């Protein structure tokens, strides 16, 4: 797929199809558990296809499972039937452990399952781009060092953090290239832990590594998108804008208008209906109102694409998801 043409068509079209991060609720369509989904490439591909058949989104996105890459490095992931996997330990506490950390091959842990899922999804879904999902470099480093500890290490032991970041970056480049080779039309990188950093620390511990990864993987026909749902993102706009990415996906911790006013007009800027508050715990009426309000506020920006603020939880109600799409269709019909 010519992703540059796809991006330009969205920017110039008066009607914007939404692109929520909608993957894990496929368990309800497939009748499987989350644990079964995250350990089976065929189920993931079938789930992405089931979602694509159900809703008219502008792209199909894979699981935003932020445990996969850390597990490949040797961290322990907790899997459950109902919840998204999480990392439950950390494996780097000293410079010596950082130096000894081995960069895994793509295929370690469950990474091979996720690459194969994209390969199969690419064959099943032919009417829209298929986007893989990966974690960002600082968010991966945080899972290897401990999320809270990583923030402290940025002050107390920055050399160790950079050692881990360099290895995380090396792996992520290889992992994303594997997705590209498997047929993905692009990647959405989730860097939420960096969204908690003060601007200067984000500029040191995240932005340079994101830039390095983007430059190593992005091509004319493979887009690089960036997701951040941290509440410090509003103070990081200058650095994020300087990346000049094709796609920014913004969480609901900040104002969508603020993001649109500060990020490049040539980029698609997506967000940010509350995934937990509305998709999971709202009602069809409340999510319609939330979507309508956001569209009324932000659709004056031609590069705005309505989305969820983050990954939609597995237990989110499909009547809420359907209402979200129906409200968007109605809005543009009446615009």
Write a structural description.
This protein has helices at residues 3-12, 26-30, 34-38, 41-54, 68-73, 95-100, 111-124, 137-145, 147-156, 158-181, 199-205, 207-217, 237-243, 256-262, 275-280, 284-298, 318-334; strands spanning 60-61, 77-78, 86-87, 130-135, 186-190, 223-228, 247-250, 268-273, 304-308. The chain is of the alpha/beta class. The strands form two sheets. The protein has a seven-stranded parallel sheet with strand order 1-4-5-6-7-8-9, sandwiched between helices. Helix 8 (137-145) crosses helix 10 and helix 9 crosses helix 10 (158-181).
The total of beta strands comes to: 9
Distance between the termini: 30 Å
CA gyration radius, whole angstroms: 19 Å
Strand order of the largest sheet: 1-4-5-6-7-8-9
Low-confidence stretches: none
Q: What amount of the residues lies in strands?
A: 5-15%
Short description:
This protein has 335 residues and is an alpha/beta fold. The chain contains 17 helices and nine strands. α8 crosses α10 and α9 packs across α10.
Write the layout of secondary structure elements.
Layout (H helix, E strand, L loop, with lengths): L2 H10 L13 H5 L3 H5 L2 H14 L5 E2 L6 H6 L3 E2 L7 E2 L7 H6 L10 H14 L5 E6 L1 H9 L1 H10 L1 H24 L4 E5 L8 H7 L1 H11 L5 E6 L8 H7 L3 E4 L5 H7 L5 E6 L1 H6 L3 H15 L5 E5 L9 H17 L1
Parallel strand pairs: 1-4, 4-5, 5-6, 6-7, 7-8, 8-9
Antiparallel strand pairs: 2-3
């Amino acid at each position: 797929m010519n992703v540059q043409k796809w991006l330009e068509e969205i920017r110039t079209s008066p009607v914007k199809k939404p692109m929520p991060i909608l993957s894990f609720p496929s368990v309800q369509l497939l009748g499987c558990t989350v644990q079964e989904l995250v350990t089976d490439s065929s189920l993931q591909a079938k789930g992405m296809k089931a979602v694509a058949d159900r809703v008219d989104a502008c792209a199909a996105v894979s699981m935003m499972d932020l445990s996969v890459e850390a597990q490949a490095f040797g961290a322990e992931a907790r899997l459950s039937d109902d919840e998204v996997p999480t990392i439950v330990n950390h494996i780097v506490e000293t410079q010596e452990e950082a130096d000894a950390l081995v960069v895994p091959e793509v295929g370690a842990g469950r990474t091979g399952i996720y690459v194969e899922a994209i390969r199969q999804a690419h064959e099943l879904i032919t009417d829209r781009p298929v986007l893989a999902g990966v974690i960002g470099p600082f968010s991966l480093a945080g899972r290897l060092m401990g999320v809270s500890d990583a923030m402290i290490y940025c002050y107390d032991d920055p050399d160790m953090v950079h050692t881990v970041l360099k290895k995380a970056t090396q792996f992520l480049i290889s992992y994303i290239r594997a997705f590209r080779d498997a047929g993905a039309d692009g990647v959405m990188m989730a860097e939420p832990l960096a969204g908690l950093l003060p601007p200067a620390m984000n500029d040191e511990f995240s932005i340079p590594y994101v830039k390095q990864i983007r430059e190593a993987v992005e091509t004319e026909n493979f887009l690089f998108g960036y997701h951040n749902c941290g509440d410090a993102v509003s103070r990081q706009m200058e650095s994020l804008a300087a990346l000049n990415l094709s796609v920014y996906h913004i969480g609901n911790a900040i104002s969508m208008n603020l993001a649109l006013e500060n990020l490049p007009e040539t980029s698609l800027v997506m967000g940010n209906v509350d995934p937990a508050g509305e998709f999971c715990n709202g009602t069809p009426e409340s999510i319609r109102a939330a979507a309508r309000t956001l569209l009324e506020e932000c659709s004056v920006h031609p590069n705005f694409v309505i989305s969820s603020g983050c990954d939609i939880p597995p237990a989110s109600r499909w009547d809420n998801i359907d209402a979200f799409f129906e409200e968007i269709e109605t809005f543009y019909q009446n615009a």
